[in-house]
Amino acid sequence: MKKITKLILPVAGIGKRMRPLTLRIPKALVPLNGKPLLDYILEEALESGIRDVVLVMSPRHTDHFARYLKSRKKEFGNLKFYFRFQERPVGNGHAILQAADVIGKDAFAVRFCDDVIVAKTPVLASLIRLYETYRAPVLLLERVPKNKVSRYGVVGIKKVSKRSGKLPSGNIYRVTEIVEKPKARLAPSNLIIIGGYVLTPSILRNLKKISDSLPVAGFDALPLAVALQVEFIIGGRVYGWEFQGKRLDCGTVESLDRAEEFLRKVRR
């Protein structure tokens, strides 16, 4: 079985919720506890056996990321980097599709820098292990209070029995639906999707078909969730893993401050 060694990192977001920090630098390069957010994800990638990393960025940030990688040759020299571009904010699924030429026909991982995960085992390594067991897309899930589900993509689930072999701790589910930002009373659960995935070539094919059907792609017109919904319709299986660890939400200035405070406490 071919190992998963490719990672897509969509870093093209304009970082509106993190202004003024993002007025001069991309969101992925905003520092957390003394180092850029991107450092945390690339460290995780190295520890998880990733070899190829596709940075999908805004063209106006090319120089920022080129300088960053030049400054990190010692830390991340064993990774091979590719630059791909997203001209407009057409959705995270559209960003992933820009890396299709690098991915080819392989399963691949996706991570977002907004979610830094503190766990004993890197979450990418765990997601890859789960993919190797179930041979289907795997989504990273977190349980939140019911009154907060309206901020997120929420999954409908069926509990599954763990297969034999050494699997990560935490609940594993068969995902049956994804509902974007539902009212609490309409949410199928209080499990939300956060920024980690292992995806299959069929998801890329779904994204391509949807993209080709859109005459003009508007703002957030091609989210990844739509391609996953297509997978449900055609009878594909999708799994979710409720990880054990701590998610540090780094999507706003306020949440970044809370993440900073948490890391300072645990590292004293």
Describe the structure.
With 268 residues, the protein is α/β, with parallel strands linked by helices. It has one domain: Spore Coat Polysaccharide Biosynthesis Protein SpsA, Chain A. It is built from 9 helices and 13 strands. It has a 9-stranded mixed sheet with strand order 5-4-1-6-11-8-12-10-9, with helices on both faces. A hairpin with a 2-residue loop joins strand 2 and strand 3. Helix 7 packs across helix 8. The longest helix is centred in the C-terminal third of the chain and has 14 residues. It is globular, with a radius of gyration of 18 Å. The N and C termini lie far apart (42 Å).
Defining key terms:
9 helices, Spore Coat Polysaccharide Biosynthesis Protein SpsA, Chain A, two-stranded antiparallel ribbon, 9-stranded mixed β-sheet, alpha/beta, 31% helix, 13 strands, 268 residues
